[in-house]
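User: Is it possible to get a 3D structure for a protein together with its bound compound? The compound here is zinc ion. I've pasted both below.
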Amino acid sequence: MKTMLSVLISVCAAAAFGLSVEKIQDVHGAGEHDLSATWLQTYWNKATGKNLRLLKPSEPFRSNAVYLGKAALEKGLVSKEETARAGSDGFVLKITEDAIGIASENPWGLLCGVGRLGEMLGLRPTGNGAGVFPPSVPPRELKECTIIDAPAFFYRNGGNPLTGQLGSLMLGDPRHGADPELFRKKSDLWIDHTAGYLVPRLKYYDAHPEYYSMLKNGERIAKDSFTDHRTPLCLSNPDVTKISIERAEKWVELNPDKKFFYLTYGDTTLWCRCPECEKLDEQPGQYAGRLLTWVNAVADALGKKYPDRIFLTFAYAGSDAAPERIKPAGNVAVVVASSLGNRPFFAHELKQGGMEKMQETLKGWLGRGGQRPLVCEYIGGTYQPAFVPQTADRYRYLKKCGVGGIAFNYGNPVNFPKLWWYLHGKLLWNPEQDAMKLMEDYAPCLYGAAAPHVIAYLKLADAQYQKTLQSGRKLANAYPPDFYTPEFLRQACSVLDNAINSPGITETLRKELTSEKYLMLADAMKHLPDYNDGELVRFVLNEGNRCAKQLNRETEFARSNNLVLRELEKTLPPSRIMALKKQIGTTTGAVPEKTAAGYRFPAAMWSGQDFGPKEYGPKNDPLSPPKLCAGVFTKAKGGRITSSAEMSLVFDLPEPEAGKEAVLNLEGQDAVSRGAAPHHLKNKEITMMRITLNGTVIYDGECGFAIHNWSRREFKIPAGVLKKENNSLVIRNTGHARGAFVYCWILISDAQLQFPGQQ
Ligand SMILES: [Zn+2]
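Assistant: Yes, that's possible. Here is the predicted structure of the complex:
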């Protein structure tokens, strides 16, 4: 296969010989079924406010026009030699004194060329999609030039010609293949796992259960035990292959404008246990052998009729490791599920080690025949403190390795999502570009007057990323210990404050920027260099809490800090934890409130809990009225739940109340977890609870709160238990361990300390 890596040849004449944008009137289109003329008309209109007329193929060539594809070649604007230099995914864009020509060896490259012209007209994407920001000043002139350019990656996920991301536009959707009625409303079939399309359960299961996976007990999986998205096939069955070929052929035939088609196993780790399937595996538990046997057979059959299509399959959930005996067919690209995406300090890990296993898996597929492998990343929902260098470093690494592109990233990081999408798109075309320059170019579209401050912040984070890379200190929990230094945090807050206080920005934008600051501080709280530095902790908590208040995210901040405490409990001495708890409480306002009878402890004071502080209500249990609460579930041994089964809070008392007899008044619920099955609800076991105060057990038994609703209970505190300082109240769920199916919860919505005679 021909590999073109970002050849950018750009020749620009002196500005004096420019093309006046105003003069351009018409488009000579590239022919039928071609999107490029439509895209061009849209872009031209958005940038200049003018409509270009699409000329009929029979009309004679005109000057002052745009020539697309074949028309550009016939007009003599672009030569075949030039399109050959651009390669099959690239384009040639030529601007002369009275014409613009764009051509490519294929329609997709042409579309990218039109996108580039859109960028030159000053358009920028609004996000991941077709929306565009118009230029602040409509362009008057385009410089004469010849651009020959090709992308570094042949698959670029997203759908945005401006940045050359055409993945989703080029990808076949199995729901638009044969028998679409099988995949309407009730089906969960999506574009990635296509086994359910290739051998549909509804069509074949009743007559041929043997097409589907054999279980350990020798029986075939039951029809209602899997969905379309998770279809497990018996890949060694010749009829499964035959049907897959027929249905894949129909699918490609019905989608002539698509280039990529997934031929994939269901999203499951359940692989067929029949002896014929197992024979195809090189090692027990590694299923890439049988997967490729099936995929290659389908891809080979289709390649004869459709030589320019590429078939994608997953190295994932059992088919991760590349087999020795069988290689992907020439028209197959393996998509490797990669854990390289969420590495906030990618370059650091590359240097220090820590991702060798993933690198090995990826390298196993590189140079193994077939198309260059793609990666499938999981960066959605993560926080990336220095996403500009992190993204650039990662994509440069992927390119250097010989990866063919990114198939999915499953969402965007939580911080600066739109900046990230733009950077992602631009770097997929050419990761060698100056990433910060791209941000400087794009930020004004999103942030207006605040853009210079946002850029200053990104540069600050970038500098800190580079500095910590240089210092080479060992990563702790994926972060360099010298990233969130007091100096950096103060500067970062001050720069973000400048952004937030920019004159003339909208309230929505102010909120968005406040949220960026909040996210940074919540992340910093998780990765401080030294939790004994009381001043630093106070600074981060104060600033974070101020943002959280403005955003109404105080309980979220409390929850986040609570998780931090839980982690720290593993390493810091109890006295320091106690002090931190109180410090968090004081700065975030999670402190006891005085009542007529004593004190109320707000839900945000609890730490170590598994739930909350958060509202629990009809969303969790249809019968429960909503209340803000915190809760714990049973500790499971060996299950995936790692709960300590305890939640606790710390409080001080004025001298006269220490040592007194008192009552602990709790409002709570013996709750049901969301994952509980209906029969669990019917036979719900009673949750067990132990309450200790300063080490003295004040209750141990059935938790006694109402199920599906809130109720109150009182517990006597004998004299001599309460102290002046650091009283520690602990509620422990002592119910039975039930692994992932825990359904015995204790939720506490109100906790009060009452002194007899005071009410
Ligand atoms: Zn089988």
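The chain has a mean pLDDT of 91. The chain is about 35% helix and 20% strand.
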